[in-house]
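2024-03-11 09:14:02 DEBUG pipeline.ingest accepted 1 chain
2024-03-11 09:14:02 DEBUG pipeline.ingest length=934
2024-03-11 09:14:03 DEBUG pipeline.predict start
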Amino acid sequence: MRARHISLRVPWHDAAWDGTVCRDPEANCHCIEYHNISARREIPVEIEQKGMAFSRIPLSKQPPCAEESSGFMSADSWEVSYAHPYRGWLTDTHGHLDETVCQVNPYTAMAIPFRWLDRDNVDEFTQSRILDPLPPDDWPSKYSSHWVFQPHIQKAILDGFFEPIRPRESLVFFYTKSRQPLFEDVNRLVVGIGLVSGTGRTQYYRNTTKPGASEHPIWAHDISHTLRKGGVGGLLVPYQEYLAPTGDRVLDEKRREMARELKITPEHSHTLQFSYRSEHVSDDASVSVLAQALKVVNLVREHGIAKGNWAECERWLNEQLAKVWTLRGEHPGLGPVLQAAGLRNATSLVYHLDSTDPGFGRDPWRAITRVLDGSSPAPHPRYRKEIDAFAREWLVLTNSPVKRKLAEALSRVALDTDQAKRWWDPSTRYKMTDVLIQDDELAENPYLLAEHDRGERDSRRVTFATVDRSVIGDQVSTKTSGVSANDPRRFRAAVVAVLRDAEANGDTLMSIDEARNKAFDLPVPTPVDIGPDWLTAHADELAGQINVQNVDGWVQLTRRASIARRLSTKLRKRALKSLPPIEESWRALLEESIRSKTSDFDEIRMEQTVRVEAALAEQEKALDRIVSRKLTVLVGRAGMGKTTVLGALSRTKQLGGVLFLAPTGKARVRLGTNVTDGNSVRTVAQYLHSQGAYDESRQSPKLLAEGRYEAHRTVVIDEASMLTEETLLAVLLTFSPNVSRIVLVGDTAQLPPIGPGRPFADLVAYLLDETVDDDKDLEKVEYRNAACVHLTHEVRHLKGEASATLRFAKFFSGDPLPVDAESVIAELNAGEKLNDLDVRYWASESELHERLAGVLKEFLQVEVGDTGTFNNLLGIRWDGKYWNVDDPDASESWQILSPVRGGLWGVGDLNRWVQKSWRGKELELCRSFALTWD
């Protein structure tokens, strides 16, 4: 059987995984992403042990990260203890299994292939990678876990996983998940690469009371490796050396930014190979990671911060890259392509041929042809019936030059089965791309895969790097298709790739120079080196996919330009059209809207008559404008009364009801509390789904050719600043011409949407632009300006005082600051008590938790450990038998918010603290019934 590579998950460690307790355990909150660490970690104990070697710590006091391979770079051995999770639960079958102590050798990690041992994966996934059929797995009726139950089947799976992990042949990739101190947006970060130097034998739990009973394997297997610090035997990315404090804050931040350049991440399509703690890593994924690693080593040499023999490390990486290219072969997608063509279990068949036929790697198509033609036997009799069932389809494929050429071209790309299926079938291909791509066209230009593939909910899109490896190779050690590295098709696909990545981050335009630089940084062995004039020179032939604007020097996806153009046209046309005015007593409806939210409105009006009357007059004018235009934008900062205006609009009988849409469930709930019966309040996703304008497979909106919605003639979209261009256009395209009035409500100072474009902010800028159009029609410009209604009077006051929270927020709004703007800062510095803003400071994790606990006790009267009161605050009540959520809106009455996911103040660590403080007993109860993975 040929060698396979392996990934191995490790938690973040502040001393480079050297087999010791972290130097600052309190600051390293990143490791809590892993269940076993989060459930068992004790910070005070680790603080006492900081810097101590695992080998010096008694097993009962060892940090839980020791069992999670956090010491994979330790030069000393240490011991870990394994307790079977079913011992206290299934006493009849597992009660005899005692806690078992195992020694971990130096430079060793513990691998567990969780994905292979999941019962739901056995038939379709695990069995396809194990030659001999696995016997049925039976289990007792009270067994409710999803793991394979029978120990002999577990052993067979473990053997099947670890057998192809070969010393000095298999690479091992160490990675962390999303929690580490450098990147908020990276969910897999490769921190080390080495060669496997040894694999431990299967170890078993001690049997204390049942002689002769079946042995139960410990799932963890030792993987020893060649990796050492300083570029010896592989690459350990020297993050910790970059992050070590120097005493100079400016220099520390500069080094942190440099450390962010050392990013090695698996491609999106390879994420599953870096999941479930340990997994086999394909040659294609290995090439991608090694190519990135070479760039990282060059940067480390340039930076000069980390000590090491980086020239030797570069030589080692190049040597491994050449070997992996050879192992990869020319047809890594052969199995998925044949499966897409109709051969059931083709991926498994090819996997086993690759493992058992020494000549397979030299000519995979010849080897598979001989098996399918009957010239050679299948690697196992179980494939015979599938080969026979495929016989006629195989005959059609072999007798069609175009189909055979397409199959060979696609098999050169490391596609997965889902990707191959959506590209092999022309009808599925067209449904996905909306472009007619012929078989011969695709065979001639595989880069079309990367340009047009959109992916699906459970299948990643085909990346440029995946295709480029199949076409260009490494230009040294493998045969290639003869395509030049400067081929226009390659350059076009590369620019499309970087523009699509930018689109995912919200950017719809990119400068030509930035696009070239981003293309050069793509993770491929042969850099994409686009010349400064290439995009301009090829603008005409790029037009189908990329718009090149030579004058201003930017590029944009043609599809993105089309969406922006269609959206702009619809909004502009509506902005210049009026509707017959409506006579309504807006003042009365506004007061009714306010009284629905506060009981002391009359008292406030008496105390602050001038302010209240000015705000009501402004809101009346806003409502008059809203109902007399086909499109209106209602803009206002927090506390300016937007919700009051919408409440009044929902109360008029003259509109026949209003459809209120909101981008999030929380915004929908808030709208619903102020909107009267007779109106409809929905999330944007709910509405689009109801209109057939939502693609479930990709979780994205669909653009309809013709809209038919007219149940409401007035539509309000609240929090419109959160909508992407595509989402807003999708909503507009669902409306029939009978929808006469659209109101977009929001605040341009809020966070932009998660996705491409900022249509709300762009629309506001267009409506308020004071420049005269080319036709010099000043009256037309003024009318356009009037489509944007600004609320400027702050209505959120407390006992006659301006809200301190809103005063503070103005520093971040972008609006001109009032003369006394800095007074709130002075008051905060002076420690003065403010009406609705309270600031507390903290310097460590324990102090942060202490402050939070104090605030929750002071304002909500809930103490740490008081689960009953905590549940009541969330609207959860105990009826004597069950907990019931009888007030779901109660959870909206208070929140703990953080701007980041990681760090001591991130949502991950705060959530852990909340769970530990008020959900500890419930979590332990749940954990006692099932073993879970991260």
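2024-03-11 09:14:41 DEBUG pipeline.report Residues 230 and 307 are 6 Å apart (CA to CA).
2024-03-11 09:14:41 DEBUG pipeline.predict end
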